[in-house]
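During the reporting period the student researcher (J.K.) took over the structure-prediction task from the postdoctoral fellow and processed the backlog of single-chain submissions. One of the processed entries is reproduced below for the supervisory committee.
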Amino acid sequence: MSLVFRGFFMLLCTTQFCTRMTVKKKDIRALTKDQLRDFFVSQGDKAFRGNQVYEWLWQKAAHSFDDMTNISKQTRQMLEDNFVINHIKVDSMQRSKDGTVKNAVRLHDGLIVESVLIPTKTRTTACVSSQVGCSLDCKFCATASLKQMRNLNPDEIYDQVVAIDKESKLYHNRPLSNIVFMGMGEPLMNYNNVIKAIDKITSPEGLGMSPKRITVSTSGVPKMIKKMADDAVKFHLAVSLHSAIDTVRTSIMPFNTTFPLKDLKEALEYWYAKTNRMVSYEYIIWKGINDSQKDIDALVAFCKQVPCKVNIIEYNPIDDGEFQQASGEVLNNYIYALERNRIIVNVRRSRGKDIDAACGQLANKS
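J.K. obtained the following structure tokens:
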């Protein structure tokens, strides 16, 4: 071996270089149970060991291999050598005077999303995020001001629910009862991972929650609404509507030019025909934007296309800009028109406004 080659070889083997060459470990929660079982067989162990690890990862939500106390230290070290658990960390938590809790959730790569625990007298609801930032451009939503950086993985969505369930038990002495995908991001733009997370949340091998206690809220992506219907999902569908007039809706939700109301209506008709389940419309009323009789009449006409209910949501300002809450008189006009036409209507009062945890306010200010 020449002196030059020998010197180069020694350089390659320095600790600094070898550290840089370390193979990146795979996130163990990306494996199915069958893949875990196969892994243990390949290591000369019993397949059932994969079942034990799978239970620790999902039912028991272990954050570390050391937590797996019914597995030998040697096996735990073998797992540590081969895998990583990319669990979330609640970086900071704020509690509102009304009992609402907002978590700033740090992901394994340092990015942060927010999730919220919303308590009432009869239930506690987790509002979870599906993306870091958002790819849509709703002008009234704080999250839309953030760049959409990436989709959340199924385990990152799952971990938000686990964290909020613990907080529900700690602060309200009862387990989590409901989940809404109304946090940061557009869930249908991360469809596969959202579905995988819901499958884990509802599985007896996960949290065992009923899909009837889960609502996925979308700004309205027609193609994906049809796909949900074809996939025969069991959770509820909510649509962030806010106007049934295309020009008005486009002015506040510019992506409406890509997904106009005509296409949305067709997708919702398809949804109902396939699932026989009504749709919930989320609707905010703003002064000078959608507070006329024409707006009310358009909403009533749109609601008659598919069995539905309307949730009128209190507006939560994100700045001192163009969006201002409409008057109580306009709200009453909406309610009267909807009820007169036998359309279910509920008024949702915001919670957690004092900690920027209310609908539309999630923007990673932390």
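The committee noted the following: The longest strand covers residues 112-119.
J.K. will present the remaining backlog at the next meeting.
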